[in-house]
From TrEMBL:
Record-linked PANTHER family: BLR1237 PROTEIN, TRICARBOXYLATE-BINDING PROTEIN
Family: Belongs to the UPF0065 (bug) family.
InterPro entries in the cross-refs: BUG, Bug_dom1
Pfam families: TctC
Transmembrane segments: none
Name of the protein in its database record: Tripartite tricarboxylate transporter substrate binding protein BugD
Keywords from the UniProt entry: Signal
Signal peptide residue numbers: 1-22
Source taxonomy: Bacteria, Pseudomonadati, Pseudomonadota, Betaproteobacteria, Neisseriales
Amino acid sequence: MTSRYAKLWAASALAAIGIAQAAYPEKTITMVIPFAAGGPTDTVGRLFAQSMSNTLKQQVIVENVGGAGGTLGAARVARSAPDGYTIFLHHIGQSTAPALYRKLSYDAVTDFEPIGLVADVPMTFVARKDFPAKDLKELLAYVKANKDKVTYANAGLGSASHLCGLLFMSALQTDLTTVPYKGTGPAMNDLLGGQVDFMCDQTTNTTGQIKGGKIKAYGVTTKTKVESLPNLPTLDSSGLPGFEVVVWHGLYAPKGTPKPIVDKLVQALQIAGRDATIKQRLDDLGTDPAAQNRMTPEALRSHLKAEIDKWGPVIKKAGVYAD
């Protein structure tokens, strides 16, 4: 009798789980972004959150959990219930954290369920409006001559701007004074105010400032020019051959999130990727949504592992670690 009731209870529990998954979502979904509001990842996240809200018929709200190069937000999501009501948008930093941090409270690969790639974003090398160098050639010369005076801002250890700075200093074989922030939003504010000299930041955060003449731009980090900034040369062609950093963004859920829920999130992501308003807005910011065949769990899982293999040796060679 006991065995019979146990089987009935198990069957009832499984049926309840199935009903819950079929009804998902029944309440607000939180998209955790591990950087301060106003930064490039925040911009991308809010665009997609709005469209996904329409598809899922429930609001997708953004919660900014900044600090420690994105690892605080990642840890928060890794500990969250795998019920689809907490999702996580992160960029290339998800692949650099395993090499940058001696101790992580989570595993960047196994503690998350990939949903799909979201967007690839070029970066721009920019400086305060009154920075004396007129072009990249002059910038390189000025930085080498004033390495103890100039300041380089970044969004914190493990961020895309930090990684770009590491490559820049490696190319120049020059160490610079770096000023870390809890996101490129506050870093950009200080650049606009002249408190720091220069930084490397995503087009989603710099295009409007460049076009408005509020900061000085020296080049893009892609091998080809960016359509929204046609007069801006590539760093590769202007004095830093081989220099390339493209910031990809991925969407994740906590490990163990049921596949039917992940599938609904994938569908909502792909619909957002086809949204004409999002495409236009991203185009204005110098980027595009990921291709539909990359907005899948399989594509993000494969890309994340490849990027970990790519950047791990670069970071270890630079000798930069955090506890």
